């Protein structure tokens, strides 16, 4: 029998970064309907930085989180609705709201060394009857042992699955292989991988992850996402099928969803540009891209210099405010 | 002749309590009489003894009934303070609460020190609140702040287990205080932990939404507030800003700890103990004045 790979589509969460969180509730309904119809198992809908992310720091959403989730829940028949929550940004209040609005899955995302700030939320999610997934971001920043330690923490809190997430699109396939294989060996829950395409490796790294034992991978239609975007859902479906894995997704239908439904709604299709390549190269958080471009424009500096400096300062996900600070300093240094 | 001081106790001899003890050793108006813990021979209790302070591992009951102790600094946990607060009250002690218990009103020394004149329990908000609310209040003193958002970034090493196990408490308490003390109509707080080595110094960003901001007046108010906070937190500084962008006003802060007991990067812990000292001293001074001692 073909091994089943669970594919989580995050066009309406990570893809929010690509449109500065400006999808409308109509966009959400239309995309969810197409994904659900194509057979996507789990569909993630949230602000790019998770529940409660609508802010000066990350950009304000076009609609409220509740409106998005209700629109999504109303457009779905078979798929499971998923939300993202970053402890420190979103709280139990937003999680309870999401559960009431129909969310069945939550991914609790922490920096790769800080899983313990997510214990509270994993437990709340379980008490709400949700599936709870631990999501270790920026996992290129530490060695294998540290990732294993943190993945085991999530498992000990009761997480149903754990992710090794390449938020910066900074890793090469061999790094993915060693990380996924080690985590897979250390935990007894399913293991996932979330890739970004800043170095052109999103599909390749997803394949490496699956071959190393990953059970779940993430994708977005047309690769819509932070930085140079994500692994393309439609490409994953085609490639995995050729490799003999089952995704339960209809290839024609997911191609239609990507090209006809999602593509016209993207303000700027993600691609590997000098700036997004710099993100992967410097190993900084993918959603810094548009913030760095805006700051570069305002302070008349090269966005690449900002991004490389952000990497040098060992910034983590969520530190968008530092971009203004760095741009300001670079401008004054001139 | 040395001047009369008000006697105080510190309950909870952990990092915060011990740092506070060192700060209060230099006070002109407060004398730390006792440090209270629950573990015999703990580091905090040993350091108290080394500095000539009474140390007890018998918990708060050891100081209840000792009427000489008039102020108690609570550096335990919200749960512990909820149990202890009624005991202090019944014993006539004024509590300065460094936990997130929120029994008494919020106090940020640079903003609403007058608030506590009439209460027997004051709450010190959160580290992020102590750092950012003065700036919200400064901007709000010039023009109304419709919405204020703060982002506190602290070194992972300086986030204790209490913060980690209930990180929602930080965001919720801080956003409430942004409105209640800072004066913003709506408030939001974000906290980020950064594990970089060497550890980063605490940094905070304050965003405020102000219609047609008066750049000159706001800049003046921000600078004046910086000086006011620096009077009790010397490592506090406006690093960048205010920057004006449409209706968004941005101020970036950096807080370096005094480095007395805790490392300098943990400005988040330093600002809590420095603020608690400022509040405690104000209470003590009021008591001394009432009695004609000052």
From TrEMBL, chain A:
Top-rank EC class of the record's enzyme: lyase
Top-level taxon of origin: Bacteria
A GO molecular-function annotation: 4-hydroxy-2-oxovalerate aldolase activity
Enzyme Commission number: 4.1.3.39
Entry keyword set: Aromatic hydrocarbons catabolism, Lyase, Manganese, Metal-binding
Annotated residues for binding of substrate: 13-14, 167, 194, 285
Gene3D superfamilies, A to Z: 1.10.8.60, Aldolase class I (3.20.20.70)
Pyruvate carboxyltransferase domain span: 5-255
Residues under site feature: Transition state stabilizer: 13
Entry annotated with the keyword Manganese: yes
Active site: 17 (proton acceptor)
Entry binding sites for Mn(2+): 14, 194, 196
CDD domains tied to this protein: DRE_TIM_HOA
Catalytic activities: (S)-4-hydroxy-2-oxohexanoate = propanal + pyruvate; (S)-4-hydroxy-2-oxopentanoate = acetaldehyde + pyruvate
Keyword Manganese assigned: yes
NCBIfam families assigned to the protein according to its UniProt record, in alphabetical order: 4OH_2_O_val_ald, PRK08195.1
Family the entry assigns: Belongs to the 4-hydroxy-2-oxovalerate aldolase family.
UniProt-recorded name of the protein: 4-hydroxy-2-oxovalerate aldolase
Name of the coding gene: dmpG
Automatic annotation (TrEMBL), chain B:
Residues engaged in binding NAD(+): 158-166, 268
Keywords: Aromatic hydrocarbons catabolism, NAD, Oxidoreductase
CDD domains found in the cross-reference section: ALDH_C (cd23933)
Pfam family membership, one: Semialdhyde_dh
Stored Gene3D superfamilies: Dihydrodipicolinate Reductase, domain 2, NAD(P)-binding Rossmann-like Domain
SUPFAM superfamilies associated with the record: Glyceraldehyde-3-phosphate dehydrogenase-like, C-terminal domain, NAD(P)-binding Rossmann-fold domains
Ranges of residues in domain Semialdehyde dehydrogenase NAD-binding: 7-119
Catalytic activity as recorded in UniProt: acetaldehyde + NAD(+) + CoA = acetyl-CoA + NADH + H(+)
Domain of life according to the entry: Bacteria
Active-site residue list: 127 (acyl-thioester intermediate)
EC top class, as a word: oxidoreductase
UniProt cross-references to NCBIfam families, sorted A to Z: ac_ald_DH_ac (TIGR03215), PRK08300.1 (NF006157)
Name the record gives this protein: Acetaldehyde dehydrogenase
Lineage summary: Bacteria, Bacillati, Bacillota, Clostridia, Eubacteriales
């Amino acid at each position: 029998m073909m091994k089943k790979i669970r594919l989580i589509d995050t066009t309406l969460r990570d893809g929010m970064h690509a449109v500065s969180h400006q999808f409308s509730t109509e966009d959400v309904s239309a995309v969810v309907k197409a994904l659900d119809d194509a057979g996507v198992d789990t569909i993630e809908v949230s602000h790019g930085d998770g529940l409660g992310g609508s802010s000066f720091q990350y950009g304000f959403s076009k609609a409220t989180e509740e409106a998005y989730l209700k629109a999504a829940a109303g457009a779905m028949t078979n798929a499971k609705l998923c939300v993202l929550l970053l402890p420190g940004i979103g709280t139990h209040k937003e999680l309870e709201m999401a559960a009431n609005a129909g969310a069945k899955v939550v991914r609790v995302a922490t920096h790769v060394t800080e899983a313990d700030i997510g214990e509270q939320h994993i437990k709340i999610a379980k008490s709400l009857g949700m599936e709870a997934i631990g999501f270790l971001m920026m996992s290129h920043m530490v060695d294998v042992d540290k990732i294993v330690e943190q993945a085991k923490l999530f498992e000990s809190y009761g997480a149903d699955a754990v992710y090794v997430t390449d938020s910066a699109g900074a890793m090469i396939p061999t790094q993915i292989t060693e990380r996924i294989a080690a985590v897979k060996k250390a935990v007894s829950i399913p293991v996932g991988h979330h890739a970004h395409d800043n170095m052109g490796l999103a599909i390749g790294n997803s394949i490496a992850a699956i071959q190393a034992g990953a059970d779940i991978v993430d994708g977005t239609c047309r690769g819509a996402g932070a930085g140079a975007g994500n692994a393309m859902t439609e490409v994953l479906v085609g490639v995995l099928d050729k490799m003999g894995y089952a995704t339960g997704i209809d290839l024609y239908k997911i191609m239609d969803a990507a090209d006809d439904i999602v593509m016209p709604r993207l303000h700027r299709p993600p691609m590997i540009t000098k700036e997004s390549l710099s993100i992967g190269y410097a190993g900084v958080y993918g959603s810094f891209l548009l913030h760095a471009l805006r700051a570069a424009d305002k302070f008349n500096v090269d966005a690449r210099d900002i991004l490389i400096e952000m990497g040098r300062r060992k910034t983590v996900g969520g530190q968008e405010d530092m971009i203004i600070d760095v741009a300001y300093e670079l401008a004054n240094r001139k | 002749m040395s001047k009369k001081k008000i006697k105080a106790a510190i309950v909870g001899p952990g990092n915060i309590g011990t740092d506070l003890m060192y700060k209060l050793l230099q006070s002109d108006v407060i004398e730390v009489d006792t440090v209270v813990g629950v573990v015999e021979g703990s580091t905090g209790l040993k350091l108290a003894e080394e500095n000539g302070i009474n140390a007890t591992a018998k918990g708060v009951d050891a100081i209840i009934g000792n009427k000489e102790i008039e102020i108690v600094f609570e550096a335990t946990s919200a749960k512990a303070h909820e149990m202890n607060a009624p005991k202090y009250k019944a014993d006539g002690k004024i509590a300065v609460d460094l936990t997130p218990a929120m029994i008494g009103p919020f106090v940020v020394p640079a903003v609403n020190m007058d608030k506590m004149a009439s209460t027997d329990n004051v709450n010190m908000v959160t580290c992020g609140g102590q750092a950012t609310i003065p700036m919200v209040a400064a901007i709000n003193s010039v023009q109304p702040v419709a919405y204020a958002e703060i982002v506190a970034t602290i070194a992972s090493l300086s986030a204790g287990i209490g913060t980690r196990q209930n990180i929602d408490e930080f965001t919720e308490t801080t956003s409430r205080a942004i409105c209640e003390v800072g004066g913003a109509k709506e408030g939001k707080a974000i906290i980020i932990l950064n594990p970089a080595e060497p550890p980063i110094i605490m940094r905070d960003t304050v965003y405020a939404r102000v219609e047609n901001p008066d750049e000159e007046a706001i800049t003046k108010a921000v600078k004046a507030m910086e000086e006011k906070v620096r009077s009790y937190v010397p490592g506090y500084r406006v690093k960048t800003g205010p920057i004006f962008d449409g209706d968004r006003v941005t101020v970036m802060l950096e807080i370096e700890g005094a480095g007395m007991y805790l490392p300098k990067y943990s400005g988040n812990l330093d600002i809590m103990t420095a603020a608690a000292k400022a509040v405690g001293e104000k209470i003590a001074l009021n008591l001394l004045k009432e009695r004609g001692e000052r």
